[in-house]
Each structure stands twice: as structure tokens, then as C-alpha cells.
Amino acid sequence: VRLCLVGFGSANKAFAEVLLERVEALPFEPEVVAVLTGRSGWLVAKEGASLDLSSALRAEKVQNLPGAQAGGLAREDTIKLILQLRAEGRLDVLIEAIPTD
């Protein structure tokens, strides 16, 4: 199952930790194909690859990961990128955990 994490603050980091801890008990193989944030950078895995969640959790910001783009994505750009990933068949599940204020 190919996942996209929108936001990578405490909520999605906690989700990523649980995912890593329990991956062997899951009835599917999760693959994180993108992490998109509005402030700390964004990263989309190359086609056919998935992101290393362990490295993402150790990085202070997404933009510190190899291949990541610095800065955040605007709302409109995030939507376009998500739609593009879906159209290319590279995304199954979107997990959004962003600030609501």
C-alpha cells in the first residue's frame, strides 16, 4: 500500500513510528512514497521506490533528507502533486495531519 503523508509534525511522526514498529504484523507492505509539508520541506520518492521512514524520523526537517526540496509547498501545489501521484498510480492512501489553525 503506497502512502503519502501530508504534514510531518508530531501526529504523522507518531504514525510513522507505529508503522515501523508494527510493520511485520500488518497484512500489507506499506510504502511511503511522499512526505509533503507546508514549512519544513517535501520529498517524493522516485517512481518504484519508497522513502526511508527511519531516516525521516531522525531528520529534524524533511528538507534535511537526501533529495528533498527545501521550504514548504503551497496548498494548491500540494493538491496538484497529490493528484499527479494518483493519476500516475503511485498513491493508494493519503494521511493528512496538518495544523488546523
Structural class comes to alpha/beta
Largest beta-sheet details: 4 strands, mixed
Bin the helical content.
25-40%
Report the span from N to C terminus.
Answer: 30 Å
In what range is the share of β-strand residues? Answer: 15-25%
Low-confidence stretches are none
Q: How many DSSP helices?
A: 3
**Rg:** 13 Å
Give me the side-by-side strand order of the main sheet: 3-2-1-4
Mean pLDDT score, rounded?
93
Globular, elongated, flat, extended or rod-shaped: what is the shape? globular
Tally of DSSP β-strands = 4
> Which H/E pattern describes the elements?
EHEEHHE
Provide structural commentary.
The protein is built from 3 helices and 4 strands. The chain starts with a strand and ends in a 5-residue tail after the last strand. The mean pLDDT is 93. The protein has a 4-stranded mixed sheet with strand order 3-2-1-4, with no helix packed on it. The radius of gyration is 13 Å and the shape is globular. It has 101 residues and is an alpha/beta fold.
